[in-house]
Amino acid sequence: MIPELGHYALVLALLVALAQSIIPLYGAHRGAGRLMAFGEHAAYIQFLLLALAFLALVQSYLVSDFTVLNVVQNSHSLKPLLYKISGAWGNHEGSLLLWVLMLALFGGLVALFGGNLPASLRARVLAIQALIAVGFLIFMLATSNPFVRVIPPPLDGRDLNPLLQDPGLAFHPPLLYLGYVGFSLVFSFAVAALIEGRIDPAWARWVRPWTLVAWTALGAGIALGARWAYYELGWGGWWFWDPVENVSFMPWIAGTALLHCVSVVEKREAFRAWTVLLAILAFSMSLLGTFIVRSGLLTSVHAFAVDPERGVFILVLLFIAIGGSLALYAWRAPKLSGGGSFQTISRESGLLLNNLLLSAACGTVLVGTLYPLFMELISGDVVSVGPPFYNQTFVPLMIPLVILMGIGPFLPWKKADLGKVFSRILGAALASVAIAALAAILLGGGPVMAVLFLGFAAWLVLSSLVELADRIRLFRAPLRDSLARLTGLPRRQWGMTLAHAGLGIAIAGMTGSTVWKQEQIETLQPGQSLEIAGYELVLERVDHITGPNYQSEQAVITVMVDDNPIAVLLPERRFYPVQRMPTTEAAIRITAGGDLYAVLGETDQALSEGYLLRVYFEPLVIWIWVGTLVMSIGGIISIAARQPVTKAKTKPKAEPQPAE
Amino acid sequence: MKPKRKRLYIVLSALLCFGGATALVLAALDDSLAFFYAPAQIIAEPPGPQQAVRLGGLVEMGSVERKGQDVRFQITDQIESIPVAYSGILPDLFREGQGVVVEGKLSPSGLFEAHTVLAKHDENYMPAEVAEALKASGEWRPEGDEAGAKP
Questions:
Q1: What is the pLDDT of residue A614?
Q2: Which band of pLDDT confidence, cut at 50, 70 and 90, is reported for residue B135?
Q3: Interatomic CA distance for residues A141 and A184, integer angstroms
């Protein structure tokens, strides 16, 4: 009964979305207030219906309703509660439902908080948002209905892939989707603005926080995924330039660019056409990501649906959405050009360069991701593009960007004096060079590029701090004044400082754990030990354990420093009988200087030969997570920022306006 | 600054960025691509000893020899089989008779020195390239045949 209710709610949601995509658009065209207002009601109803459908699916998982095919395929009655719930979106159909639910959530939020938007813009945004939902709902009902029944029902389910049974991964997809779908709203705003034929600072004031929501959620989702890969896959790696990682990274890069140029629209009314284009591109990247993951086009662990019908359907959707919006852009964008003027050396130029570099970087990732596909289509050769490609393309493009990131915040709008700026940041630059040199000595040398990037990490943190100190006139005004200024700083300022410094911290972790990583593989009998990075690891014994839905072999390893035991590591090899699948559970000892990471290898012939142990030392890896967390906090603080600057100038505009 | 001048600067810096990126991409594509081979293909047209290669097929039954962390096995497409040497812990799903992809280089002696072994996380899983290669050699069996094997 409950699944039918969910199915029915989906169909109703499609009808509501259909109406919501047509009526407000027509209303805005005719200037009819009541027709436009329909959009808001429809947005609420659509959200409620989809929430109902989603809850129905979660309910089916909670009670392990094995008459529902989706539950049979992805759940099991013995599975822990958290994974029963997260199982609802850990598969193709369920994750699509989550996708549309979020789409409707963003629509509902515009209806709820959009009171200060011009009515015609609001109506158009809601209509475009609903149009996207229509596409996805038709796709779902036609090819990927999560509520399909099985008759007769099997006794038990096939369980969720054990690798996905992890708390981090339970939240990874929802966060990613919040990010992907967040860009849909920005896209809707861009398309609505193209239809309206105008963009003003009020538009940018709306788009900025939503871009931030998407950017923060996507960034946090990517970081969570990287962290999952780090501790779950047992390789000690956190980023593989896998196509599926790339497709989540590309909208993030485009979103970063968008975030920076939308503030130019807001403050200076320049770059308007470019901003709209970026908004379209950011969402196109999100759609492309969904397409690539869902169609199973590129071979990958994540590709759980290899189904040509779905692939073609998504391709058509993609074509309509991206092609349509770009065509609209080509037609309408010339109306949007112009804006405030600026000098060659100014914050505008800095942000322009930022956008160019980010776009180029995004382009290299796109080429690397799609190249094997085109290659196979054209020549039939099967090739793969791996980390070396990105190290030679993406990484070098980051060098000017990171240098610029330290300088940019010091540049005033319109016109900047480079000499003055340099004198303010000289200290930070010299200190960064010193830190890089010191690091090189401490770490016993390393590739030039690695030392360079450690210097960049220091540069980002230091320049952000110097900029902050500048702003509160630290040491140049009495300390009390400085403190007063510190507490009075606008939240956006904090957001920027934290995001830039956080990236610096993360870069330190990425560089350290990539370049100075150590690895030891040895076969040990109980009682024997191995040494890595100044630690001695003693294999005490191997126990057999039974978990809720798995059996496990657990090694007990004592970590010694100078013959003193300091920690115990318990790496496991688990076996999940339902899916007949073994997994590796790494044991990690986390310290600020680096992680000790132990994996228990294959043990079936173990008794005669001993146990195969693989141990890594990963310097500074924790700082990746700290840095990305700091960036996310910066994003969250900045989302909640009030809009102080434009108050005086646009006060009258801020009032709710009747339709034009 | 005159708008014309400004536009020139913008276009120039855009050209510089995208031109630079394109140059980087072309240079990187030249020497960081790894081509995929099936055993019969690698024997028919062997790659150079420095060329990064991916080799895919089935792990031949009874071919796996372990000596501590050093592993030797044969990868086969039922036409030819190639000896592979690898040092380290094999992935969880590495089994005889299963599809795998190894990455590394083919030494002049004909031994494939692998730095990475990939076996996918699903007992039905067959890497797409391997499936294609097996279909091409007529040795394709529908998935699930080996599903009963325990690790």
A1: 87
A2: low
A3: 21
In angstroms, the CA A37 to CA A123 distance is 7
Q: Which residue of B has its CA nearest to A525?
A: B68
3-class DSSP state for residue B79? coil
Rounded Cα–Cα distance for residues A515 and A535 (Å): 19
Candidates A392, A391, A393, A374; CA nearest to A383 is A374
Contacting residues of B for A605, CB less than 8 Å apart: 66
d(CA B83, CA B106): 10
Residue B54's pLDDT is what? 86
Q: Which residues of A touch B21 (CB under 8 A)?
A: 360-361, 363-364, 393, 397
Residues of A in contact with B68 (CB under 8 A): 522-523, 609, 612
Token code pair at residue A322: 């991206």
| pLDDT tens string A36-78 | 889 899 999 999 999 999 999 999 999 888 888 888 887 888 7
Distance CA A419, CA A409 (A): 15
Contact A521 B66 (CB under 8 A): no
Q: What is the model's pLDDT at position A648?
A: 37
Q: How many CB atoms lie within 10 A of CB A259?
A: 26
Q: Is the pLDDT of residue A279 over 90?
A: yes
Which of B1, B27, B35 is closest, CB to CB, to A344? B1
- Residue B121 has its nearest CB partner, among A301, A383, A612, at A301
What would the two tokens of residue A365 be?
Answer: 């990732």
Structure tokens at A454: 């450690």
Torsion angles phi and psi, residue B87, rounded to 5: -125, 120
> How would you list the strands of the sheet with A518-524, edge to edge?
A518-524, A611-619, A594-600, A587-589
Task: Please tell me what DSSP assigns to residue B45.
Answer: S
ipTM of the complex, rounded to two decimals: 0.73
- Minimal Cβ distance to A367: which of B25, B52, B87: B25
Nearest CA-CA distance, residue B69 and chain A, Å: 7
> pTM above the 0.90 mark?
no
B17 touches chain A (CB under 8 A): yes
pLDDT band at A651 (very low <50, low <70, confident <90, very high): very low
Interface of B with A in 65-104 (CB under 8 A): 66, 68-69, 87-90, 92-94
Residue A637 has pLDDT above 70, yes or no: yes
- Strand, coil or helix: what is B118? strand
How many angstroms separate the CA of residue B57 from the nearest CA in chain A?
14
pLDDT tens-digit map of A287-345: 887 777 666 565 543 443 455 667 777 778 888 989 999 999 999 888 777 666 777 78
- Look at residues A40, A244, A38, A50 and name the one whose alpha carbon lies nearest to residue A136: A50
- The tokens for B110 are 């004909």
Work out the mean pLDDT of chain A and round it to a whole number: 85
B residues 25..54 contacting A (CB < 8 A): 25, 27-29, 31-36, 52, 54
Q: Show residues of chain A in contact with B92, CB under 8 Å.
A: 234, 573, 581-584
φ, ψ dihedrals at A117, nearest 5°? -85, 150
Q: What is the pLDDT of residues A252-267, one digit of tens each?
A: 999 999 999 998 888 8
Locate A417 and state its tokens.
């004096």
Residue A476 burial (CB < 10 Å; 0-12/13-18/19+)? exposed
Q: Least CB-CB distance to A601: which of B13, B18, B89?
A: B89
Instruction: Measure CB to CB from residue A388 to each of B32, B88, B147 and give the nearest one.
Output: B32
Determine, for residues A397 and B18 on separate chains, whether the beta-carbon distance falls below 8 Å: no
Nearest to A587 by CA among A550, A552, A620, A638: A552
For A126-180, the pLDDT digits (tens) are 999 999 999 999 989 988 888 988 877 787 777 667 767 777 777 888 888 899 9
Element (H, E) at A585: strand A581-585
